[in-house]
């Protein structure tokens, strides 16, 4: 695995998260919380591509009740290995009306090798 550039993290969707390509990296996910926090410090999150993933709330504040099926949020966290949940560090509330389909299309273009040079972090 290539070293992750300092201060940069990829924007991904649920399918990309589950692929294993981003293990041990910081990433950004956008979507909505779809369940109450569980006793095991996890919460279900529906990503922009409609894939539901499990997030760990161990290192972040538990999302407030009004965020369940509420506004679109950005999650920044570290992808674990295997079936472990993404470790959520930052939750940014964005909007209730953000079009996640359009956002997901943008993510797929960004991750397409054909367009990779347009979205790659600037190397110092």
From TrEMBL:
Keyword Nucleus tagged: yes
Lineage: Eukaryota, Sar, Stramenopiles, Ochrophyta, Bacillariophyta
Gene Ontology molecular function: DNA binding
Alphabetical list of SUPFAM superfamilies matching this protein: Nucleic acid-binding proteins
GO biological process assignments: DNA recombination; DNA repair; DNA replication
Keywords, ordered alphabetically: Nucleus
Protein name as it appears in the record: Replication factor A protein 3
Subcellular location: Nucleus
Protein's organism: Phaeodactylum tricornutum (strain CCAP 1055/1)
Family (UniProt): Belongs to the replication factor A protein 3 family.
GO terms for cellular component: nuclear lumen
